[in-house]
Amino acid sequence: MATVQDIEIRDSAARAAQAAEELQDVQGEKMVLNMGPSHPATHGVLRIVLELDGEVITRADPDVGYLHRGDEKIAENMTYTQFIPYTDRLDYLAPLANNVAYALAVEKLLGIEKDLPPRCQYIRVMCAELARISAHLLGLGAFAMDLGAVTVFLLTFTEREKIYNLAEAICGARFTTSYTRIGGVMRDLPPGWLDQCRKFCDEFIPALNEVEVLLTRNRIWVDRVRGLAVISKGDAIDYGLSGPNLRGSGLEWDLRKNQPYLCYPDLAFDIPVGSVGDCYDRYLVRMEEMRQSVRILEQCIRKIPGGADNKTKEPVNVPDGKIVLPPKQNVMTKMEELIHQFMLVTEGVNCPPGEIYFGHENPKGELGFYINSRGGGTPYRMKIRAPSFVNLSIIPKIFPGCLVSDTVAILGSLDFVMGECDR
Amino acid sequence: MTASEAAKKLKAKFGDLISGPAEFRGELTLKIADAERIVEVCRYAKNDLDFNYLVDISSVDNYGEDPRWTIVYHLRGFQHGGELRLKTDVSEEKSELPTVTTVWQTANWHEREIYDMMGIRFRGHPDLRRILMWEGYPYFPLRKDFPLAGKPSDLPGVAFSKPAPLEGGPFVTVAGVEDAIHREPRVRNPEE
Questions:
Q1: What's the complex ipTM?
Q2: Which residues have CB under 8 Å from A244's CB, separation 6+?
Q3: Shortest CA distance from A71: residue in chain B
Q4: Which residue in the set B53, B81, B185 is minimally distant from A240, CB to CB?
Q5: Which residue in A has a C-alpha nearest to residue B114's C-alpha?
Q6: Hey, what domains does chain B have and what are their CATH numbers?
Q7: Under CATH, which number does the domain A63-422 receive?
Q8: Per-residue pLDDT for B102 more than 50?
Q9: Any CB–CB contact under 8 A between B132 and chain A?
Q10: What pTM does this model have?
Q11: Of A181, A172, A176, A179, whose CA–CA distance to A81 is shortest?
Q12: To the nearest whole angstrom, how far is the Cα of B186 from the nearest Cα of chain A?
């Protein structure tokens, strides 16, 4: 026997009304969301405590320090030369640039930064610019991948691989380079390296154009990043931002131009600046910086004293046995060099008492070393001014009002690295 | 305006409060006698001398000397490109000075770091918490009397709390001692 049963199926409008009624009590209640420290979009071990009102962030509290290793404490307990490998592990995406920054800081303390042989200066500039390209490529690739553009990541990593090969050719290590020494570099460029570097430059620009085609006018990309997390010029200065993040906000300040060091005054390059200070501007600044770095590299390849094979035997180290280790051949045969070797290895480079600050234009911003010396081979106090640490401090200011899905875009555009932030 | 002109103006404005400038490797350092007045000096440097960028704040532990702490401020003006270093001393008993977060926002994290690493407090700081070490950590690791190997501390149920395995560490050197025997890197125990 058939029975008839009424089933009540409400339409969507009625369902929404009921849902709103049920949620009445929780309206306006905020939710606290923990992001990180192990979250793929925080590029390392950054933790952010987000307070959410629905999808909108109302408060953000970054929590750093998960990668703290006490580098400044360690520096106080070893000679200046011994600390070089530790600088690799600051901004581990651009170890060569850190090596250069640290060596220049100690050389400023010694007062020999003007005496560096020209070939050494050119080599260091090339190292710093290769590191800049490498770091920007990773920052860009990760930024794009977090927003769904995986192809970009694959393209940029293909190019980075070539930079690692170049690094391996000059110092034997791909990642932890430790290439510079106080007063010079570990060794001269290997034969054929400049050709390899030229080949990289030639291949890199087409690859970068490909990335540019994929992103710069891509509707999805532009919609996600334009107008997002605008940092005004005033705020950027007030919060101490540096590097591409500062230039993205429209301030033309680059330590390579404004406080020139090494052979940068002899090289022609432009400083790109943003106009609005949003994530899109920071992206554009990095893109252009890579092109300018290639420009610098090409000039260096042309101008480097001694050329590819260094037939004229241009020195790459300061000719001072009390600063740079003498050639091994001489150590074995000459008394004075043996003494120099012994003193340098046991005591380190004898620095005068005094204090200096040296800021280097690293890929992430201004990497500064404040060295307080009381004489002898170890610093009394060494403070590392890490650009990522300072750049991250603006998060509580720019996050509120953004959506949860915007966090990955903003973090990608700030381009930080925790090894340097936490030291 | 160059840094030396700025230093002159600061001296003219504050008189005896400021001594120096000491010059080393082309950098000017001014010493401020009274740490309590650091905000006043910084505000004048920012508003009237265009030092709109605070590069960094560092701290130095002059262990065994009085006053024990030195706080170092690095100022930069983007308009004129000049740089200036301000230093001020704080005694160990006091271990406190006013914050400059009201002058530059970027001082916020630098001061938190100094509090975390050295244990110097900044009066009026909006959020003086530890930043690199965890909340509840009992020591200040950058002090000179804190051993390189670390000290046992509690982070219950989360991580080990024994000193680092480099205790009695390899090749530890001492800064600022006169003779080569003491400067040479060698095994040292934390108690020494």
A1: 0.83
A2: A136, A282, A285, A286, A289, A363, A364, A365, A415
A3: B142
A4: B53
A5: A383
A6: 3-146 (3.30.460.80), 148-192 (no CATH)
A7: 1.10.645.10
A8: yes
A9: yes
A10: 0.86
A11: A181
A12: 9
